[in-house]
Design a protein that fits this description.
With 615 residues, this protein is mainly β. It is 4% helix and 50% strand. It contains 2 helices and 45 strands. The strands form 11 sheets. The chain has a 7-stranded mixed β-sheet with strand order 1-19-21-20-14-13-2, with no helix packed on it. A 6-stranded antiparallel β-sheet has the order 7-8-11-12-17-18, with helices on one face. A hairpin with a 7-residue loop joins strand 36 and strand 37. The longest helix is centred in the first third of the chain and has 15 residues. About 12% of the residues have low confidence.
Length: 615
């Protein structure tokens, strides 16, 4: 089915932006201050004087702040929940960080249908259960978008995608650090009524400036984050000039410029700026208008979302003390969310950089974050790892610093009063950290084993699964393949390795190393599966791709049940047949690639059938 694009509104966008600039120049607004007070006990880490979030009062103030405070980059040797209804049969859901906070994924199921992004720009609706009735019932094709994720809730399907930035050759210079030779992309959110799965009906079409960052669904609301360059470089005659570009939002064809008085900022400087916009969309009641909140932030971001808050972490590198080496620092914004309502509530910072969303967590009124802090000189670098506990005003409450000096965090997972941390340089120290006293975090115990984990997953109260890479004994030498490790943390002072399983040789890869949503794990069944691209010789040719399926238990360890591939006659390097996700409905295991869906019985893995997803 056809989906409207925004080409027809681009001319209106330019006209509206010009009008907005003229109007904004005469606007003055009382700044809304969210005061963050210091106290001797809860002293925040702030290397700057200002510590407040406020909106700009005018376009002139916004433009002046951006143009006058952009810094040259630091150049010191830098390494340049699924359906809400009760299903007829049990089914798997997306592997998410926070229960009740769904994360968009390329494959979803509601226990009867499977929804999948295929070939980049098509969303498929597949009748999946029972398996003998499996067939594609609808295709939603959006040829001008690269689709990034889906949400499904009862009779609603949310499809999100973005357009790639436009490269402008005349703006490109290899030696230039001071501008980005692209024009910003945009993010599109489409809400469909799928009460008739064979005939999806578009209910809402929202476009916002900037590339897609991430999204969450909480109840009936989808929150989408997008980031757009605040300054684009345009060719003006024989010169290339910086131009401030206000973000815009288009809801069902109605275009609005986001005014400077709607944009919040903190009085900190960076070498470049982006407008980070958060959309809140009610997918159930389309009569309710989407709401939005925009921040002027730095250029990189790491995002964590709880049921009540969105945390945007902006890592950067700064010279905090004149004459000293640059240091890593992460600025943190807390945005309170409640349905369509969003409000900037706090702003703070900590030393170092978080690895990813699992480096952050909210628990019992505190925000916890694990970082690696690296200090760099012209020919040297030193690192240390830290955990910081902040209150809801993002004031520092407690800290544990100096963990594993010289190493870096490879994986982190907060679970209630504990944090599990993996650092690596030669060996894999697996740390168990106590956070029961927010003011006094402490290491309870650790285990050193070869290799490292890139992802940690809880398994009951006393076990943690780690998935990563094996290395030789002693830590030196080439990697030895993909590793699954089962850690016992019942004795927190002496964690132990219950079992491990090695797949392939060096170069064997799985998307689980970078994308936790690639993991299927059901602790009640003991069922675990994820995609694998296999090589049997160190960094040799790939020889197999598909799903590895395991039974995991505390008593039996890690047992391989079997493998499932979508290649009929031997392996060839064709990503169209690469298994990207594994889900189950009832006692049927489904593996999905761009071209095919295969169905196998659980636990025998005997094949029940397959269908081609494209004619």
């Amino acid at each position: 089915m056809e989906v409207p694009d925004i080409k027809s509104v681009k001319k209106r966008t330019v006209l509206m932006a010009i009008l907005a600039i003229a109007l904004a120049a005469s606007l003055t607004t009382a700044a809304i201050y969210i005061d963050l007070f210091f106290s001797p006990k809860h002293k925040p880490y702030y290397p700057w004087k200002g510590h407040e979030l406020r909106p700009f009062s005018s376009l002139e103030e916004l433009e002046s702040f951006v143009m006058e405070t952009m810094q040259a980059p630091v150049r010191a040797e830098l390494e340049t929940y699924g359906g809400d209804t009760t299903p007829e049969v049990p089914y798997s859901q997306t592997n998410v960080q926070v229960q009740g906070v769904d994360e968009a994924d390329i494959v979803k199921t509601d226990g009867k249908y499977i929804y999948a992004i295929s070939k980049g720009s098509t969303a498929l609706i597949v009748k999946a259960y029972p398996p003998d009735e499996a067939q594609v019932v609808a295709r939603i094709e959006v040829p001008d978008l690269f689709l990034r994720g889906l949400f499904v809730s009862e009779d609603r399907l949310v499809v999100m995608g973005c357009k790639a930035p436009v490269f402008v050759p005349e703006l490109h210079r290899w030696e230039a650090w001071d501008y980005w030779p692209y024009l910003s992309d945009n993010t599109t959110v489409m809400v469909f009524d799928i009460s008739d799965r064979a005939s999806p009906r578009l209910l809402r079409h929202v476009v916002v400036s900037g590339g897609y960052l991430t999204s969450r669904m909480i109840g009936d609301y989808v929150y989408v984050l997008a980031s757009a360059w605040a300054v684009e470089y345009r060719k003006m005659g024989n010169r290339i000039e910086p131009v401030l570009v206000l973000p815009v939002i288009c809801v069902d064809g109605r275009l609005d410029v986001i005014e400077p008085t709607e944009i919040y900022y903190a009085n900190i400087t960076d070498y470049a700026y982006t407008f980070t916009t958060i959309l809140a969309i009610n997918i159930r009641d389309v009569a309710e208008e989407p709401t939005h909140l925009t921040l002027l932030t730095g250029t990189s971001s790491c995002i964590y979302v709880s049921k009540n808050n969105i945390y945007i972490a902006m890592p950067t590198t700064e010279v905090l003390v004149r004459g000293k080496a640059p240091e890593d620092i992460t600025y943190i914004y807390r945005i309170r969310i409640f349905g369509p309502k969003m409000a900037c509530k706090a702003f703070g910072s900590v030393p170092g950089r978080p690895l990813n969303q699992f480096s952050m967590d909210e628990y019992n009124g505190y925000f916890r974050i694990a970082t690696t802090a690296t200090t760099r000189g012209s020919s040297w670098a030193s690192s240390t790892n830290n955990i910081y506990v902040l209150d809801m005003d993002l004031f520092l409450v407690g800290a544990l610093e100096g963990i594993a000096p010289g190493e870096e965090i490879y994986a982190a997972r907060f679970m209630g009063d504990r944090c599990y941390l993996v650092t690596f340089r030669q060996m894999d120290p697996f740390f168990v950290i106590d956070l029961s006293d927010p003011e006094e975090p402490k290491v309870l115990g650790y285990l050193k084993i070869p290799g490292y984990s890139d992802y940690l997953h809880p398994y009951g109260p006393d076990c943690v699964i780690g998935i990563g890479v094996e290395t030789p004994e002693g830590g030196w030498g080439e990697p030895c393949g993909l590793k699954i490790a089962l850690f016992n943390v019942c004795d927190v002072s002496n964690p132990s390795l219950l079992a491990k399983f090695i797949i392939g040789s060096a170069g064997t890869y799985s998307p689980i190393l970078r994308d936790h949503k690639a993991l299927l794990f059901d602790p009640e069944r003991g069922l675990m599966a994820f995609p694998v691209l296999l090589t049997e010789k160190a960094y040799g040719d790939y020889v197999w791709q598909g799903a590895y399926v395991f039974n995991v238990s505390i008593t039996g360890g890690i047992e391989l049940l079997g493998r499932i591939t979508h290649f009929d006659e031997g392996f060839r390097f064709d990503p169209a047949y690469f298994v990207v996700r594994i889900i189950y409905i009832g006692d049927v295991l489904y593996t999905i690639s761009d071209e095919r869906m295969k169905m196998n019985e659980i636990p025998t893995l005997s094949e029940l059938g397959s269908i081609d997803l494209w004619p």
